Automatic annotation (TrEMBL):
Taxonomic superkingdom: Eukaryota
Protein name: Uncharacterized protein
Taxonomic lineage of the native organism: Eukaryota, Fungi, Dikarya, Basidiomycota, Ustilaginomycotina
Record-linked Pfam families: Mob1_phocein
Binding site for Zn(2+): C90, C96, H168, H173
Organism: Malassezia sympodialis (strain ATCC 42132)
């Protein structure tokens, strides 16, 4: 028996303690719970090896489930340090009284009166909306092995919201963007996932 595989019922601590070499990490099952654990361990151990992170490890895993798991993990990993740093630099007093991407101002869908959010408000609303969309798709038990086809059509919309946030940070808070990216490679992971699966047109990404 290979004791290094992720097995049902293992805690994250057990998995992390059992795996020193991420190159030998394998999946025992191809359901949502196992895929989430697998991605979590890879992100923790090799966060900068983005091509390995997003490469489908087995043809037995449904690609839609793989993309879904990665999008949820990207939203989770955006919280620290990205959103925490964002609150320090992306302020109305600092010029971000509206959500700008270059010269364009984006209006928030949370409001029906046409008024712009501050950039910080827009970003929080956008990330919450993306998380809610994925949550509605993934209201499944952990043994799920595929995402319904009609739900996969929501992936590009989620990616568009995330890309807009990265674009604002890259164009208007480049020092913060560079610092967080050096620590996490989160944008590189997102870009690699998007490009590998043709989730957005090329010009939707900032770099």
């Amino acid at each position: 028996m290979d004791h290094r595989r992720i097995r049902r019922g293992q805690t994250l601590k057990d998995i992390q303690n059992n795996w020193e070499d991420p190159s030998s990490l394998t999946l025992l099952t191809n359901d949502l719970g196992s895929v989430q654990q697998y991605v979590g361990v890879l992100v923790r151990q090799t966060p900068h090896d983005v091509h390995r992170l997003v490469e489908l490890p087995s043809s037995d895993i449904d690609i839609s489930l793989w993309i879904y798991t990665h999008l949820r993990r990207i939203l989770q990993d955006f919280n620290v340090p990205w959103l925490t740093r964002l609150q320090e630099v992306c302020t109305s007093s600092g010029g971000c009284n509206a959500m700008r991407i270059g010269d364009d101002i984006l209006l928030c869908r949370e409001h029906n009166d046409g008024r712009p959010c501050t950039a910080q408000e827009y970003i929080f609303h956008a990330m919450d909306a993306a998380a809610d969309t994925l949550g509605s798709i993934g209201a499944f038990h952990s043994k799920l092995t595929s995402i319904p086809r009609h739900c996969t059509r929501l992936f590009p919309g989620v990616c568009k919201q995330i890309a807009r946030v990265f674009s604002h940070l890259y164009l208007h808070h480049n020092e913060m963007f560079a610092s967080c990216e050096a620590d996490t490679s989160l944008y590189a992971r997102f870009k690699c996932l998007v490009e590998a699966n043709s989730l957005l047109p090329e010009d939707a990404l900032p770099i």
